[in-house]
Structure to design on (334 residues):
């Protein structure tokens, strides 16, 4: 197949905020995907959408399908921008469509859909102004997040607040920094889990990954913050979580969580691949925090490949499975 790989390259730019490029992909990830596709006999052209005119390229060059991992440029609908261009040009691509990607990046809208489908998710309030009154039904502690960000951007130790004064301060800070609405939800104290769904001829829920922060006491952080994701493994900073895959769960809880992840994948409308973040509360209720239809694919560090490896799927097979799923869905192969 003639394949174009669309991506945003992670760069260094001291004029940008520290987390500006967090969602973008490293050269290691790009090279790994290219090599995996080439080993399967495909011709691959890599396109960094940061500096590529996609309209001009695709008008001049034929591709059978696009392997899309691009996060887009900017704004509330950025993850849907590249698929929207490809839809306009009638070019098939891997992964979810524009509607799904738009919904999933909107945390509050996703949670409304989850609640309508009776999928447990923390109670929340969307702040459109920084002086809004808190819904008295919400219980502290609360966690404050930008509503349209991924890769834990805007989430730090100070995001968890225990009173109205700290809540007001944090909402104002996030609103000023990210220029967007702010999601405030009840913080679920419990175990951090993430679950991958892969459509590879059939829909497969991968082994659950548990992230244990008990070794991170030096950092003071006990959940997936931006620092935890960005500097994961840094002993000096104390950001050294343990990973268990499969997660340390009894069979009944494991089954319940996998069913929730699959249902979330389906109701949000994901295609080919997704990763759902879940907190297992002390009440043993699994709460869906959010879903990522564009999970990271770094072969060493990203959660999704780790879950695939635990299922006995090699990296090359994982990339090919995504491609085949999208090809079958678009009628390129039978």
């Amino acid at each position: 197949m003639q394949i174009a790989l669309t991506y945003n390259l992670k760069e260094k730019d001291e004029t940008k905020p520290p987390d500006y490029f967090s969602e973008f992909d490293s050269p290691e990830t790009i090279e790994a995907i290219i090599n995996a596709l080439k080993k399967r006999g495909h011709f691959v052209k890599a396109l960094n959408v940061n500096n590529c005119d996609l309209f001009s390229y695709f008008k001049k060059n034929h591709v059978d399908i696009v392997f899309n991992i691009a996060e887009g440029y900017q704004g509330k609908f950025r993850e849907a921008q590249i698929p929207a261009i490809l839809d306009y040009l009638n070019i098939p691509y891997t992964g979810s469509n524009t509607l799904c990607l738009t919904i999933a990046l909107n945390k509050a809208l996703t949670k409304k859909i989850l609640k309508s489908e009776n999928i447990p998710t923390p109670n929340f309030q969307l702040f459109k102004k920084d002086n809004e009154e808190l819904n008295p039904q919400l219980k502290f502690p609360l966690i404050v997040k930008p509503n349209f960000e991924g890769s834990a951007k805007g989430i730090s130790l100070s995001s968890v607040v225990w009173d109205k004064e700290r809540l007001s301060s944090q909402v104002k800070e996030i609103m000023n920094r990210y220029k967007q609405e702010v999601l405030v939800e009840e913080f679920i104290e419990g175990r951090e889990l993430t679950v991958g769904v892969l459509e590879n001829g059939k829909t497969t829920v991968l082994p659950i990954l548990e992230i244990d922060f008990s070794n991170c006491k030096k950092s003071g952080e006990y959940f997936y913050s931006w620092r935890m994701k960005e500097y994961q493994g840094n002993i000096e900073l104390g950001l050294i979580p343990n990973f268990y895959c499969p997660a340390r769960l009894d069979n009944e809880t494991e089954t319940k969580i996998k069913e929730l992840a699959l249902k979330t994948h389906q109701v949000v409308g994901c295609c080919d691949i997704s990763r759902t973040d879940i907190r297992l509360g002390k009440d043993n209720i699994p709460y869906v925090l959010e879903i990522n239809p564009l999970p990271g694919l770094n072969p060493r560090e990203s959660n999704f490949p780790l879950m695939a490896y635990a299922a006995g799927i090699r990296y090359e097979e994982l990339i090919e499975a995504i491609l085949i799923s999208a090809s079958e869905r678009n009628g390129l192969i039978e």
Notes: The CA atoms of residues 4 and 113 lie 33 Å apart. The chain is about 30% helix and 20% strand. The mean pLDDT is 95.
